[in-house]
Structure to design on (210 residues):
């Protein structure tokens, strides 16, 4: 990922926050048949390894897990993002030498993907993933709410994926390269947006240049 120094993010806490908040990641593998990609909900087990381990599952009918991988796999996590109009820059009034851009967060996690179909491991991964996304509900659905035989049948249709993260790249482009006046204009403009994610980005604009 191209990352100018001003936008590089190495703080593990921030990287993990972006990964946790990305509800649907993308698993990319290079194969002899070309690139293959699958959107997947994943969870990060931070207790395993230096950078943590990602878990999820694919449909058994998905050819990606059966196609030999060349090198490491890549998981893409896209955080919040917002279009930035040059009309918000103080520099537009000063000299007009401004263009549109985009502010965003992104994490790229690399590692060797392991696929598994052991029923007990699959059930454990599915249960943890379900608990993660149901925990905020007033009446969370749990895997045990469905008949045991039904769940066993469903597990036969999926394959688990485990990816120990070997290296990780983070990028947070939040107008850090602009002047204080330009950043203030961007924050004010985004704060008035109808899009919740753009209002969230407004709160991430630094008030002072690092």
């Amino acid at each position: 990922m191209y990352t100018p120094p001003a936008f590089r993010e190495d703080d593990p806490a921030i990287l993990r926050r972006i990964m946790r908040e990305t509800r649907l990641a993308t698993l990319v593998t290079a194969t002899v048949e070309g690139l293959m990609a699958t959107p997947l909900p994943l969870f990060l087990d931070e207790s395993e390894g230096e950078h943590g381990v990602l878990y999820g599952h694919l449909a058994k009918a998905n050819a990606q897990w059966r196609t030999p991988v060349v090198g490491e796999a890549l998981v893409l996590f896209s955080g919040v993002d917002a279009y930035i109009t040059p009309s918000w820059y103080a520099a537009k009034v000063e000299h007009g030498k401004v263009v549109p851009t985009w502010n965003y967060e992104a994490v790229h996690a690399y590692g060797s993907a392991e696929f598994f179909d052991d029923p007990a491991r699959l059930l454990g991964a599915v249960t943890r993933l379900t608990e993660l996304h149901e925990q905020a509900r007033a009446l969370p659905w749990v895997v045990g709410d469905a008949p045991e035989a039904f769940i066993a049948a469903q597990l036969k249709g999926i394959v688990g994926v485990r990816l120990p993260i070997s290296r990780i790249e983070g990028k947070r482009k939040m107008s850090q390269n602009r002047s204080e006046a330009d950043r203030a204009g961007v924050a004010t403009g985004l704060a008035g947006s109808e899009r919740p994610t753009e209002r969230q980005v407004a709160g991430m604009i630094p008030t002072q240049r690092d």
User: Anything to note?
Assistant: Strands lie at 25-31, 34-40, 43-45, 53-59, 73-84, 101-111, 114-116, 158-164, 167-173. Residues 48 and 108 are 18 Å apart (CA to CA). DSSP finds six helices and nine strands in the chain. The mean pLDDT is 94.
